[in-house]
Design goal:
It is a single chain. Among the domains are: about 100 residues, 3-Layer(aba) Sandwich (Rossmann fold), CATH 3.40.50; about 70 residues, Dna Ligase, domain 1 (2-Layer Sandwich), CATH 3.30.1490; about 90 residues, Aldehyde Oxidoreductase, domain 3, CATH 3.90.1170. Helices cover about 35% and strands about 30% of the residues. Helix 3 packs across helix 4 and helix 5 packs across helix 6. The longest helix is centred in the middle third of the chain and has 18 residues. The protein is globular, with a radius of gyration of 21 Å.
Amino acid sequence: MTFNQQWRVLLLTTPNTYRAQAFLAAAERLGVEVLIATDMQAALAESWGQQLGLDFQRTEQAVAAIVALAAERPLNAIIAVDDSGSLLAARASAALGLAHNAPDAAEAARDKFMMRTLLAGAGVPSPPFQRYATNDDFHALAEQIAYPCVVKPLRLNGSRGVIRANNPPEFVAAATRLAALLETIEPTPGAKPFLVEDFIPGFEIALEGLLDHGTLQVLALFDKPDPLDGPFFEETLYVTPSRLPEATQAAIARCAADAAAALGLREGPMHAELRVNEQGPWVVELAGRSIGGLCSKTLRFGTDVSLEELILRQACGMLIESTDRTSAAGGVMMIPIPGAGLLKSVEGVAEAAAVPGVEEVDITARIHYPIVPLPEGDSYLGFIFARAETPDAVEAALREAHSRLRFQIQPSIALRIEN
């Protein structure tokens, strides 16, 4: 297609992201030229047909490469598709004079200790916390900690490594399990930091928004009908619009806006996770990016505009005609992984897709490949999408569709025996 030379955007992606395709589709619809930088070695990126391979952790070199690219092909915006690229996007945008969040704010939205420290300093409701390290004496710590508590890594996403403990033995087991996971992910010498937070009772809700010069525009509130009380925190259902009272929704929006201000987030997409109880909303997580996975498919705005199109329009300074959602309710089920092993087969997809209200059943896990549930895993079996007149009907459709799916998983112990 012919691109409008007024707009060119650089997407920062990872090799395994779910989310780049939605941005590419939105850019094509808008006539925005997209350049892609992937978090991988330059030679490997070239062999994959990617335009630019960068090491997102080596930010100085990566920023220099992006500045050199922009000298030849000027950019209107840099957008991080996932958390891993948010700090690089901020620093490169600052170097090029493009609108974006300050690097310190982007870093705070990635690092849970920095986030908790800033939220506490600003008086934003969030759980009491303490930072420890994997070389600490877990048995000694277990006698000092208030229960129930939540053990969590500083930087992993999607509830990976997050474990609830109700007593000292459970804390020792949780901290030991998290330490093993962190060592697997980052097998470098030295202790790895982690957080221990008070467990906040209540139900969870997710907020999707756009920040414009520090002002939050709430795009959607998602109910999470399944309880998230641990010991692990695997998310399943997201349903919008929220069925909460208007006053509660307004309090959630104010809390999320206060949290963004505390971190210094001012521009672009924002995704927040909150818990709500009789004391009001509490911030669990805040990210300077849009909703993860394929979940953005649940959202349509104005005359059939996607979330990614809104983000691109804002980033390029284009007119946003409406942020009102379409009238129908929508939802997604992130299909949980019931156990570790080798995924042998998936049955019932056609039956699930035939449920009234279901729009799509997308199995993203690959047959004959290993799957790992939380807290060690970082993915789902797939996604079910539904749309109906009411949130209740959406939730019912998602649950019915899920009940029709059948997964054959060869357990991990069988794999070890075979090997």
